[in-house]
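Feature request disguised as a bug report, sorry. It would help if multi-protein outputs had a clear separator. Right now it looks like this:
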Amino acid sequence: MDIDSENYDRMITYEDIPHIASMDGIENVILYDTSYLDTLIYKTASEDRLLDKLNLIAVPESIAQDYLHQTVIPYGTGYLEEGRLPRDGVHEITISKKLLKKHFAYTDEMLTRAIGSRVNYENETYTIAGINSYDICYVSFDAKRNYGLYQYDADTFNEFVTRNLDYKKTNDYFHPEYANEIFIYTADGSEKSVLDKLFQEYPAENYISSEYVSVWKKTFNESVLRKIIIINSIVVTLLGVILLLLNKKPTSKV
């Protein structure tokens, strides 16, 4: 792969996102909203107190199923007491019992049959899909609503960048211009070409994808297999020599 040496240290900044979103083979770009999620994770949730406003997080099912362990988002089945996580685009919510009591006046008896019931919050109606042990609400992902993961839109991107840069600079982030976590959705059959292009333009980034993993596993396994074959060949050869020596009968003298 031909990579310009001047780009060896280049990572993806917010300014690069419109260019990346316009690349052939790319369908959507989703960004980690640092100012939203970091405030929620480190300042709100960590205080272990119920606020007057619900803390909402929306994560696409595709990220939750395959790439959640690559993020720092407090999201997943590990927080579930019962039920499941919300599905995309269907106005579902997974919420804690404490929050149902505080914000929706649920009684203990109502909590026993909470899953499947509906709640109204900020002019939206949500069906309860699960009960969560953590006092953060998970809601269905909707590309038009940003609850921690923002889907790139040319009309709203400047506001997103300005807000995040201001937050990072105020909190002394190292290299605030870098986009922290980026999720890139490619068209069918385009993952390899997109990944190759990103490698060439932003080689200092850390990448993970189905294509990357499959190539890495194949390369790694082949190198390990070659070593095993070489070692086994040496062992077999040595064993053959040892057996030959052990089975060699002494020559009788006349």
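(second protein starts here, but nothing in the output says so)
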Amino acid sequence: MKLTECSFYRSGKDVNFSVFSDDVCRVHHMRSISLPLGGDVDVYDVEPGQKSHWIVIRQTEDGKHDLRWFVRKGRDFEEDRGAVPQALKREVGERFPQLIPRHPALVA
């Protein structure tokens, strides 16, 4: 899936997301959805920086984190749903150590 086809959601502490990249990205509020039982869900899209090569979105729902990886392919950012290359994980881990958990045996 392309980044331009994705929407990201925020609703208080229960549902939110964070954007990590190798260049500054813009997050645009698209709309709010009112829930029948009260509260709102805000819908956002992410615009990559001109020099971005990759974007990692950390989605949080009910305290559980999920990472979505997007890699530049020409003008588009394609989601990498397969095995993310180790070199990319290493680069992301160096910039944002909180995203890539280290195996306890490997920590000195």
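Even a blank line would do. Unrelated, but nice: The mean pLDDT is 91.
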